[in-house]
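User: Can you help me understand a structure? I only have the sequence.
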Amino acid sequence: MYYGHRGTIKYIGKRVIAKVSDFGEKIHEFIDTSNNKNVSIMSILVKLPLL
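Assistant: Let's start by predicting it. Here is the structure, written out as tokens:
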């Protein structure tokens, strides 16, 4: 969404990045605890927001 205000866009961007990275950490915890070998695709997806 574009609100015509750079500060608002930056704020929304930071919120989205925070939510995505938090979601990534939760998936990491799930992978670590489940110790399942069928999560290679998930581990690749988790690494993307952490770059």
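Now, to help you interpret it: Residues 6-50 form one domain. The chain has a mean pLDDT of 66. Let me know which part you'd like to focus on.
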